[in-house]
Amino acid sequence: MIATSMVRAAGYGSPLAKSPREVEYELFARVTRALQAASPTGSGPMGAQAIVDNSHLWTELAADLASPENALPDELKGQLLSLAMFSIRYGNGVLAGRGNVSALVDINLSIMKGLRGQGGE
C-alpha cells in the first residue's frame, strides 16, 4: 500500500525482498516504537519527531488509499482514511499540548495486528 519512496526514506532499502504487508508492518512498528519511547505528552524533540513521523506515515497511507489503483474494498478504504484523518488531527493536538500519544499507539497497534492477520479479537 505505502509508497516506495516512504519505504526507502525509512531506511529499508529495496522493498522487493519483503511483501507489501511486511513492509507496512515494519513501518508501523518503527513509528509506534518511537511513540512509545516518547514522553506520554509527546513533548520534547523525540516526542515531536515521533508524532511528525506518525503523521507522515498516515499521510502516505491516505494518499495510497485514495489512489484509483488501490484494490482494497471501498468500505475498508473509507475506514482507514477515517483513521488516517483522526491520527493526523489528533497528533497535531498532542503537539499543541492537548492529549497524549496513547491513542496514536493504540491505533497503530491495531493496524499492525490487522497486517499480521490478527484483527477482530
Note the main attributes of this structure:
single chain, 121 residues, globular
TL;DR?
By secondary structure, the protein is mostly helical. Helices cover 69% and strands 0% of the residues.
- Average pLDDT value? 89
Q: Kindly, what is the distance between the CA atoms of the first and last residues, rounded to a whole number of angstroms? A: 23 Å
Helical proportion, percent range: 55-70%
What is the number of strand segments?
0
Largest sheet: none
How many separate helices? 5
Q: So what's the overall shape?
A: globular
SSE pattern, N- to C-terminal:
HHHHH
- Beta-strand content: under 5%
Q: What is the radius of gyration computed over CA atoms, rounded to a whole number of angstroms?
A: 14 Å
Give unreliable regions as ranges: none
Helix-strand category? mainly alpha
Describe this structure in words.
Helix 2 packs antiparallel against helix 3 and helix 2 packs antiparallel against helix 5. With 121 residues, this protein is mainly alpha-helical. The chain contains five helices and no strands.
